[in-house]
Amino acid sequence: MPEREEPVRLAIFISGRGSNMKTLVEACLDGDVVAKPVLVLSNSYSAAGLEWASEQGLPIAAIDHRAYDDRESFEKDVQQTLELHNVEFIALAGFMRVLTSWFTEQWEGRMINIHPSLLPKYPGLHTHKRAIEAGDAEAGCSVHWVTEGVDEGAVIDQERVAIQEGDTPDTLAERVLEREHILYPRALAKAIEDFLDREAEDEAEA
Question: Which one is catalytic: 65, 115, 128, 144?
Answer without folding.
Answer: 115
